[in-house]
Amino acid sequence: MPDGSTSDAFVAFERVQKSYDGENLVVKDLNLSLPKGEFLTMLGPSGSGKTTCLMMLAGFETATHGEILLDGRPINNIPPHKRGIGMVFQNYALFPHMTVAENLSFPLEVRKMGKSEREEKVKRALDMVQMGAFGGRRPAQLSGGQQQRIALARALVFEPELVLMDEPLGALDKQLREHMQFEITRLAHELGITTVYVTHDQTEALTMSDRVAVFDDGRIQQLDPPDTLYEEPQNSFVAQFIGENNTLEGVVQEISGDKCLIRLDDGELIDAKPINVSQVGERTRVSIRPERVEFNKERLQEGAHTLKAEVLEFIYMGDIFRTRLRVAGNDEFVVKTRNAPDQVRLKPGEQIEIGWLPEDCRALDA
Ligand SMILES: Nc1ncnc2c1ncn2[C@@H]1O[C@H](COP(=O)(O)OP(=O)(O)O)[C@@H](O)[C@H]1O
Ligand SMILES: [Mg+2]
């Protein structure tokens, strides 16, 4: 896995900052490098600086400080048409006076490709986005979703080395979106294309990417493969932003090695793993995933601290049960259990005890 060193990187951001008004930094200190062939997603809330980073990489914006390198060379020395970058943006405009096939053929003509090769590539690109029958239509005769699929096909038709995509699937319905997520990743890997993908949809980021860079406030909060990101969030923002998460607040009472004892604000004690806390007396928010909470005492470790909980709501979801609890004053504490034949269905009003393995409960920044 890449370690952030930029020596053999295909794309590298080095201490990049960006300000539009000369005062406020919307990208604060971006260091990021991708090896060839990687599918990297920038994930974050609206306004966190994702599009700005993509525009700088594409060459439509310049960095205020720092450097962006493409294949080892500073990007500002390479003219845009020689960058070999395919782009799909949220509102990508197709040429309205050209048919779909002509739109796709255009980037190939620019590259002086022969007619029969062009036709073959256009056909393949159209099939790839399930639009094989639409080559003769004009963009105005297509739905928004269909236009976006054509825009995607046009970005991939010349098999660029680097593709940038900014929320390309936002306009598509759920089923087509999921199909396209699968198609985009399969294609990117098959063609060996390096991809920088932007989304605010965490499920999309987790399912598509080799690595995900979580953005907030112009900074990368964490950069990791999807499973590491979900299972080992390094701060409260990431824990909260990725997946469903239960949070309890308290103060560090003891720390020894990879365990700590937290006194919650209502006085109860719980075991946790110290991630982002280093001293006794420090305030912390502990984070525990809904599927890691246990209420079957036989499955808890000997001597583990448990908490009293009241069942507030039981929701049957088919494959899983989602139970909402009141825990240490928090009415939004959620437990998820698999719908197995012997699984208990908790009832509202029941008083139970819950616990977890200390390593599943992470003591993060307050
Ligand atoms: N062309 C621009 N001029 C001035 N401010 C901009 C411009 N584009 C984006 N911004 C601001 O920069 C910040 C980051 O925006 P953006 O990169 O679009 O975030 P994201 O794509 O994560 O939603 C926002 O506060 C936004 O208002
Ligand atoms: Mg954006």
From TrEMBL:
GO terms for cellular component: ATP-binding cassette (ABC) transporter complex. It comes from Thalassovita mediterranea. It is an enzyme of class 7 (translocase). Belongs to the ABC transporter superfamily. Spermidine/putrescine importer (TC 3.A.1.11.1) family. Part of the ABC transporter complex PotABCD involved in spermidine/putrescine import. Responsible for energy coupling to the transport system. The complex is composed of two ATP-binding proteins (PotA), two transmembrane proteins (PotB and PotC) and a solute-binding protein (PotD). It comes from the Bacteria. It holds the Pfam family TOBE_2. Residues 11-242 form the ABC transporter domain. The keyword Repressor does not apply. InterPro entries: AAA+_ATPase, ABC_SmlMolc_Importer, ABC_transporter-like_ATP-bd, ABC_transporter-like_CS, Mo/tungstate-bd_C_term_dom, P-loop_NTPase, PotA-like, Transp-assoc_OB_typ2. Its EC number is 7.6.2.11. Keywords: ATP-binding, Cell membrane, Hydrolase, Membrane, Nucleotide-binding, Translocase, Transport. GO terms for molecular function: ABC-type polyamine transporter activity; ATP binding; ATP hydrolysis activity. It catalyses: ATP + H2O + polyamine-[polyamine-binding protein]Side 1 = ADP + phosphate + polyamineSide 2 + [polyamine-binding protein]Side 1. This is Spermidine/putrescine import ATP-binding protein PotA.
